[in-house]
Amino acid sequence: LFRSPGLMVALTAAVLFLVFIKHETSYDKCFPNKDRVVRLYNTWMEDNKIENSPISIREAYTEIPQQIPEIELSTQIYRGGLNNVSSGEKHFKSQEVLYADAEIFNVFGLRLLDGNKDDALKQANTAVLAQSLANKLFPQTNCIGKIIKIGDTDYSITGLIKDLPKTTHFSFDILASMESIH
Prior knowledge:
Elements: H1 5-24, E1 42-46, E2 49-53, H2 59-62, H3 64-67, E3 77-87, E4 90-100, H4 104-108, E5 114-115, E6 126-130, H5 131-137, E7 147-150, E8 153-161, E9 174-177
Parallel strand pairs: 4-9, 6-8
Antiparallel strand pairs: 1-2, 3-4, 3-7, 5-8, 6-9, 7-8
């Protein structure tokens, strides 16, 4: 069909480039409120070196919204990293845990498959499971009210959420209450 290997290579490269661009520009498009969410960054300058980081002190989420009326809601998200998770005899290594305020559901427009989003992360040591992990831990039963261990700490399951797509800046197996680490 093609008589020129150069043309074939160029077309292949163009298709791969378009697939890459589509993938990169699809990040966080899964959130209904995507066009109304802003990420807060801090800038540190030390020894003539500038570093930007999405990590902010707690007051940034509690005081700034009170001073700027255009901010409707705020939520803090903290990466808890990879943790061992267990329930009874079932143990899973390297499960991604995010800690967040209860407002995360309203800020990002997330819905729970089970549980009450207004109460799901209000108390310390509560957690919402991603559907894939819930199916592994509790394949035959409803997980709401069950206890899991994250590391050595017990957490009560208060919600179940559909797994987020891979094209999001924050993915998790467990969404735990920020109150758990205060």
